[in-house]
Amino acid sequence: MNAPRFSVLVIALALSLLIAGGRAFAAQARSEDLTKPLTLEQCLRQALANNPDLSVRQRETAVQQLEKPLALSRFLPTLDVESTYTRFEDQQRTVPAHQNNQPGLFDQDHFLNELVLRLPLFQGGRRVAQYRIAELAALSANAQFTTSAQDLVLNVAGFFYGILQADQVIASTKSSIHALEVQKRTADLQVSVGRLAPLDAMKVEVRLASLEQLLLQLDAERQVLLAQLARSMGRDLEPSSPLQLQGRLEADLGELPEFEAGRAQARANRSELQQADADLGSARQALIAAEADIWPQLSSFARYGTESGWPHDQRTEPGALDGETRWAAGLMLDIPLFRGGATRTRVAQARLRVDQAGDKLRSATLLVDQQVTSAYAQLTNNRSRLAVTRKNVLLARETYRIEQAKYETGKSVINDVLDAQSAMLRAEVENSQALTDSILADLAWRRATGIDLIKHFHLEMGVSQPRPTETNP
Q1: Mind giving me the DSSP string for 363-414?
Q2: DSSP for 213-279?
Q3: Residue 116 domain boundaries
Q4: What is the pLDDT of residues 228-272, one digit of tens each?
Q5: Do 224 and 372 share a structural domain?
Q6: How far apart are CA 196 and CA 115, in angstroms?
Q7: In the prediction, which pLDDT does 11 show?
Q8: Residues 325 and 243 in one domain
Q9: Nearest in space to 57 (alpha carbons), one of 152, 155, 148
């Protein structure tokens, strides 16, 4: 092997190793990215980018946007090439005579090739109504997308904070289990020296087994929340790369918002009302389009082409025309006289759909008012609960400390210690639940009043979103 060929092989081998190493490093980087703890904002960003249900809504919005140029094309002329073949029973003049006694060509087979231009001039307002329907359908689809995106953000936040709460409860349960294990070892020593009855030691074991079962249940519930969060984020939850989160249960709550201001803001900004209003407008325009069938239709046309017969069957005469190129232009008026009641039926259906869309708008308005009222009630209730549970945690911890000290000095029994420990765990769980509910109630209030949760978390979307005026509670 000569030196140049050997050098080429060495370089090729080095490049192959370099590419393979780069691919392995990139794969490792992707794996590390999947295993890194995610914040709430990162989870929301992945959900908005990868959620399949939201992607369906986004594509539907794009489809409806294309309805506008389609409706606009109905105002423009159409240009077609038309070819016609006709065979008659008897031979017919291939080309019409242009003067008396003009000889012509007769044939059973006729061919007509034309360039045809058509332009509708008056259709009773149908084209304008169809264009407005396309505009309103695009608004309705965008409102549906906005609703889906806002609900997705709220759901992802609910799963995220639910997992954080589960972690907090699991940590409290493990702390209680650790305290009971210490208590169990102490009780076993006391039983061995005769200072404690075996029944009291059994009570500690029963309580410890109960907490271990609770821990298993909490872990199973956490796995369910992780699966729901992963599904909302559009990613698979693989055992080899479990989803890890980072965050804290913190409630930065200010003063309570004003209910009437929130309801007015909801009626102005909720995408559900915007969708219902757009659907009502579409129904009204559909009624106009249906009523257009009552009016005459006026259109213009222009033709340019050639007409001839089949060459092998021609009977020519001197000076006879065997084909010609000609043009024509004119107007066509179509006056509907009888359609079997179809026009009247379509108009009646369109009027019923207008009434139906009005009822849906009314129903959506009432539903929004109900959601605002419910969100406000939950907001006030959860804030009150949070204040109470915080005090209960302090009292329960102090009670447990006192009962533990009394038991160690022989002034209390094991039942009092176990009850105090159980009360402390229950107080911590209730406080964690109240804190989570307060955080989610604040987000639910923002969602109910039409505040853009995407902008609230400083995120961006590829599809334009409405910009409501935010009133921070």
Answers
A1: HHHHHHHHHHHHHHHHHHHHHHHHHHHHHHHHHHHHHHHHHHHHHHTTSS-H
A2: HHHHHHHHHHHHHHHHHHHHTT---BTTB---B---------SPPPHHHHHHHHHHH-HHHHHHHHH
A3: 82-122+297-335
A4: 999 999 988 776 677 889 988 887 777 889 999 999 999 999 999
A5: yes
A6: 109
A7: 39
A8: no
A9: 148
pLDDT at 10 over 80: no
Residue range 180-212, pLDDT digits in tens: 888 778 777 877 777 777 887 788 788 889 889
Q: How far apart are CA 67 and CA 69, in angstroms?
A: 6
Q: What are phi and psi of 314, to 5 degrees?
A: -85, 145
Q: Indicate whether 329 and 420 sit together in one domain.
A: no
Dig out the tokens for 170 from the structure. Answer: 């699991």
Of 108, 97, 89, 104, the residue nearest 312 (C-alpha): 108
Domain assignment present for residue 323? The answer is yes
Reported residue count of the chain is 473
pLDDT tens digits, 113-170 = 999 999 999 999 999 999 999 999 999 999 999 999 999 999 999 999 999 999 999 9
Token duo for residue 146: 């906005």
User: CA-CA distance, 72 to 66, in Å (whole number)?
Assistant: 10
In what order do the strands lie in the sheet containing 323-334?
78-93, 106-122, 297-309, 323-334
